[in-house]
Specification:
The chain is mainly α and about 160 residues long. The protein is about 60% helix and about 10% strand. It has a single domain, classed as Winged helix-like DNA-binding domain superfamily/Winged helix DNA-binding domain (Arc Repressor Mutant, subunit A, Orthogonal Bundle). The longest helix has 21 residues.
Length: about 160
Amino acid sequence: MPETPYAPTRIRSLPSWLLGRAAARGHRLVAEALAEEGMRMMHHAVLSAVGELGPVSQAELGRSVGIDPKDMVAVVNDLQADGLVTRTPDPKDRRKNAVEISAAGRCRLRRTEELGDRANDELTAGLTPAEREQLMALLARVVEPGADSKGETEAG
């Protein structure tokens, strides 16, 4: 089966189709890279968020990364079972769990970030550094119209 399915010429010339194909290739490359460390993309996203936000309540973590609460429980359970995060009662509200990255989690996160960077380098290997920077700026504007290159909206 071909990596890129057939699409009529008119469709292949649409930015939406090209963005979708680029996203699918990027997703595949990153997923394969993370698999080298035995990690799935959702687990990596949650571990990365915990590393950045933690300690954070499980509910807030789910809202931050846009994961359904039931799915979040399963992901955090997996990360905890692998020793990558700890889950303890939140000191601010003992009814909630605070999730925090462990030392092993920080090590794994560094390795998976390097793998993700390599995958993204492969994704954009056909571009010069200047073209890659331009692509990133253009994609940011497509994703969030009205935002400047720093991610701030023009209104404020």
